[in-house]
Amino acid sequence: MSKAVPPNVIPPLAQKFGGLLKRKWFRELVLLVPTITRRRFSNKTEDYGVFEPSLVSHIGQLSIYVRDIARSRQWYEQVAGMVHSRTAEREPHPAKSGWQIRCCYMSAIEHDECLVLVEEFDPTGNISTPSGMSFFHFALEVQGNRLEDVLAFARQRHDSGFRPNYGPVRHNSEPPLGDGETGGNVACYLYDPDWNNVEFCGAMDTIQNYRARYGDTKGSERA
């Protein structure tokens, strides 16, 4: 992994304090500055609620820019257990005249070619560097989809030398794993070689369960 940490990535030193995010006062302190500058409307994580499902049933494919297909392919094979399907030859970029791309297609257990690793080449033939500035994270569901499956996944990855940057946690306000977020799912997060923040999760709660538990109360009232 490159030593240069993009500005949108939590520095390794700060990652060591990730456990404090389970403390409500610490979360609100971290979110205070973006709230004052109006990048967030509240520093109360409970104010970000669970919404009705959209009309989209699932995401068919996710494509991300990478700097080295071979390195990223190895990471997603070793960490996520994904399987390489095929790697295409260079082809013209669909949106940038004179640029080229090369794509590597990765498959999950029940979803072929759901993740595409894309190398991008400028008109001189040099590979571009993904900025990551508009990217927050994406989530991959762990096989089994249970609390114990996510905890086992996190433990196995840690023992294999892949240190999570956050988690495992449960996205609700209930101890001992609750971090005050919403969704109810159990999750751990790891950075891939290009600093994409990848969530490995399971046991997502349902909107029906949330309504049965909290009714129509606002997020801050649920805390």
Biggest beta sheet summary: 5 strands, mixed
User: In CATH, what is the homologous superfamily of the domain at 131-215?
Assistant: 2,3-Dihydroxybiphenyl 1,2-Dioxygenase, domain 1
% residues in beta strands? 15-25%
Helix content: 10-25%
**Average pLDDT figure:** 85
CATH architecture of the domain at 131-215: Roll
Tell me the structural class. Answer: alpha+beta
Q: pLDDT below 50 for ≥5 consecutive residues: which ranges?
A: none
**CATH fold description of the domain at 131-215:** 2,3-Dihydroxybiphenyl 1,2-Dioxygenase, domain 1
What would you report as the Rg, rounded to the nearest angstrom?
19 Å
In total, the number of strands is 9
| Quaternary structure annotation | single chain
**What is the molecular shape?**
globular
Secondary-structure element order, N to C: HHHEHEEEEEHEEEHH
